[in-house]
Amino acid sequence: MKKKLNTQDMTQGTPWKLIVLFAIPLLLGNALQQFYNMADTIIVGNYGGATAEESANAMAGVGVSFPVFFMISSLFMGLGIGATVMISQFKGAGQLADVRRTANTMYSLVIVAAIPLGLIGMLISEPLLQLINVSSEIMPHARAYLMVIMGGLIFTFGYNANAGILQGLGDGKTSLLFLGISAVVNVALDLVFVICFNLGALGVGIATIMAQATSWIFGVFYINKKYPQYKIDIFRIRFEKDILVRAVKLGLPAGIQQMLFSVGVLTMSALINTYSESFVAGFTAANKIDAFAFMPITSFSNAATTFVGQNIGAGRMDRVKVGVRSAVLMSVAVSIVIAAVLYPLGGFFMSLFNQSPDVIASGCEYLYRILPFYWMLSITFILNGSLRGAGSSVVPMLSAIISLWLARVPAAYLLSALGQNEIFWCFAIGWVPGIIISGGYFLSGKWKNKSIISRSELPEVQ
To answer: How many CB atoms lie within 10 A of CB 183?
Structure first.
């Protein structure tokens, strides 16, 4: 049955092999997601306006909008992380009824929260864009994109809910299918709305939401057919009080972390946006390359979350440290290889987004200052993902907040006195306390008693 349903039992077998096998479809899925995110940027950066400068402004508008969207939606996304961890632990403990209850409570939250939150987001989008110093040249593009994205928030939430349920079950292959559908639809619609209809950033937003809606609806039908024991009914609101309380306790710190992180990113954006439009556009394009390059580490981190969750749920504490150590070593090795490959090719990849020499130069300055330090962020990502899988979400929250607010943001403003390009050293500076806090807590072993499964429910380790 497990083989037929594509779910992976991570409580048996060699830990590093299980993590790699689970990470591969996640990596391919992340690649597809980043591919169509990059396609958005490439298409609008080259065809979003009548001139290269207008296209760069449209591209920058899409880029500056994302932190605002992320801030508004981050609290709910954190609760989704909590539900994913719960599903993985219940799956590991063999409590399939609780898996179903968690999935349905998660979906009820999607339906109830998405529409009012989307409306609020549409109302406050422009004031937030003004608050972060978005220029008059970029503002129309950013406003149009953000209004569409917030209006379709329910599709984004539903799309992520499907992925979270499947990740908790240990099924990365089906998520890859959903992402593939979304990527194909998104790129095709980008070409239609941007090139054929000349809608610029607005067209990119419409394409993104329509792609996620298509994938979400297909995903609900697919999950209900493939996993009838976890049937999702999006037209029935069912809040299981005990499940919701656990999800809030587990996911709220992650949501607060993401919200404060996104506020920090907006604070950084307010600084970046005080410079020229070409500098903002270069930063936007380089961020897309950065996200694409870092996706293997994200995949290892998500795999580690599921691995730790299932083994904690099954009472296999002996396997957890071995698996986490393997994930850290693999992610560090991969991050070093990625940096070595991308460093000399930064200019080439930047030229795919926009042909302006100033845009290319600004993006390269960003890449040259963060690529050598990828290994630091990879360690923190793996440790924080593992701690969340164990049910400990407060320390990852503190690690991220301290790294951002006490290190990265202050460093950025101080370094700006040395020149706009020197700002980017703040990322490596911010990653140092993250390693110290998350690493120290993991080594202390205090996370071992954070499982949502009571000790009396756990099987004995043979």
So the answer is: 21
User: What three-state secondary structure class fits 452?
Assistant: coil
Tell the burial category of 454 from Cβ atoms under 10 Å away from its Cβ (0-12, 13-18, 19+): exposed
pLDDT tens digits, 327-366:
999 999 999 999 999 999 989 989 888 888 899 999 999 9
Total-model pTM = 0.72
Report how far residue 88's alpha carbon sits from residue 314's, in angstroms, rounded to the nearest whole number. Answer: 10
User: How far does Cα 416 stand from its chain's mean position?
Assistant: 28
Closest CA to 170 of 288, 91, 54: 91
DSSP 409-450: HHHHHHHGGG-GGGGGGHHHHHHHHHHHHHHHHHHHTGGGG-
- Residue 316 has phi, psi (to 5 degrees) of -95, 60
Query: How far from 85 is each of 190, 192, 226, 408, CA to CA, in Å?
Result: 34, 39, 21, 29
CA distance 373 to 332: 10
400: its two tokens: 């991220």
DSSP 8-state assignment for residue 49: S
Residues 6+ apart with CB under 8 A from 5: 171, 226, 227
Cα–chain center distance at 274: 27
Q: 247-261, 336-350, 431-445: lowest mean pLDDT where?
A: 247-261
Write the DSSP assignment of 95-109 as a string of letters.
-HHHHHHHHHHHHHH
pLDDT digits (tens, 9 = 90+) for 311-328: 988 888 889 989 999 999
Distance CA(111)–CA(108), nearest Å, equals 5
Token pair, residue 24, equals: 């591969």
Distance of CA 172 to the CA centre of its chain: 15
Model pLDDT for residues 92-116, shown as the tens digit of each residue: 888 888 888 888 888 888 888 888 9
Query: Can you tell me the distance from the alpha carbon of 296 to that of 302, in angstroms, rounded to the nearest whole number?
Result: 10
Residue closest to 212 by CA, chosen among 125, 154, 147: 154
**Residue 241 CA, distance from chain mean position:** 27
Residue 250's nearest CA partner among 149, 107, 396 is 396
DSSP 54-83: HHHHHHHHHHHHHHHHHHHHHHHHHHHHHH
